[in-house]
Amino acid sequence: MPERQEPLVATNAAESKVQIPQSPVQTGVRDELLRLTTAASELLAARFGLAQLEFQEAQKNIQKRLTWTILALFFISLAFLAGNVLLLATYWHTPLRDQILWWAIGGYAVIGLFALWRLFAAKRQSSSLFAASIAEFEKDRQWLKNAQKSQAPKSDTPSSENLNESKQNDA
Fold it and tell me: pTM to 2 decimals?
């Protein structure tokens, strides 16, 4: 049996000491577990990097849309106010004053309903936040599920049943 070496002491950035056991003979399970852990951490780092990038792009897009929306609403409101003042000043002393006001209210209601309809249509058509990240995680989940199904357990060591049979045959 090979001798076990003493554990190595490694320090991290926080200067705390972590003991890493080392042995001269690496087992297959340990190597596979280390490889799997490394691959999983790299995969998660890539996926979280993608999510972070999407978040930054969404944030910039939302800020730009919000800025233009506020500017548009401000100047449309000024035009609306000026148009109403002009309308009232023009028709205030005429017998058509009541009809003009009702037509204006009806027109504003139609425009408001149209704007709400377009808002809900745009919301339905917009892609959800982090759609690419969610799709990548779904692909990873499917890939892992397929990989797990396709790999049958392969063992280089004899099973306990085979050991019992060989003991009985030797006796």
Answer: 0.40
